[in-house]
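Dear support,

Our group has been running a series of protein-ligand predictions, and this particular one with zinc ion is the one our PI (initials K.S.) wants archived with full inputs and outputs. We had some confusion internally about which version of the output was final, so please treat the block below as the authoritative record. The input we submitted was:
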Amino acid sequence: MCLVPVLICAKTYSWGFYAHRQINTYAVFLLPPEMLVLFKPNIQFLHEHAVDPDKRRYAVAEEGPRHYIDIDHYGKFPFPTLPHAWNDAVQKYSRDSLMKRGIVPWWIQTMLYRLTNAFKEKNQVKILKLSAEIGHYIADAHVPLHACSNHNGQLTGQHGIHGFWESRIPELLAEKEWDFFIGKARHLSDPLEFTWQRVLESAAASDSVLSAEKKLSNLYPSDQKFSFENRNGVLVRQYSADYTIAYNKLMNDMVERRMRQSVYAVACFWYTAWVNAGQPDLKNLTNKTFDETDLQEFEKLNASWKNMQGSDKICE
Ligand SMILES: [Zn+2]
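Confirmed final output from the archive:
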């Protein structure tokens, strides 16, 4: 077989597809029985569509800012002058400049509002689509490099660190070593503040994500830092298993912790939407099948994602 070396350099938008799908899947098991009747039979949908928002980035320009916030533009941690409420933030900075720096904390609130309405309408298709997608944005808010303008180490000579943190580490370690037994979802009395807490934790962690990698990188010659692996007949260059494990250790299992917190947060948001909608009976919903428009939308997302993947050769 002829193997062509390829450097993995996928666009760095969020947790990798693997982690997003796992987060939505594990979150289902934190729900009460009244919700499990809907979420468990549809777990495959929630798994599969956890990544739709990333696919949409290739098709819809305004999608991008919903996944991150370059919070360091707003001063110093904990950014006391940045208003947490959307309207106050717009008044202070204008919508355009907020969009430029990313809006993930506020977009989660929009999605929560939509999901709550879908529960009130008892509309199964909407509930499932919005649940899958809000899970994505909540998980993104937990990634330190989504709360930092040096999101792929581009300012510090650490290109590739984004995918390293959120894809390579969970893909190598999550199934073998990590524990996702987390407990039960709870109702969030202040979802906006809950989100901001998580975003601020991400922002605070971003410095150590970058500095730990810098430190480790100085100790490793490049032929030990990277290795080649055969993936479906393609030889790919990626961070070596040794290097990945050493980095994970140096960060004290931060990736596992943030992934577990993502799972918990996703379940809490689903549960909060359902409670705030008056706990509708999920055994009796309307609009249970995806219509032609839904199916075409899924097709379109897949097609635009595949098209872009082919031309997406430049690492950020
Ligand atoms: Zn994303």
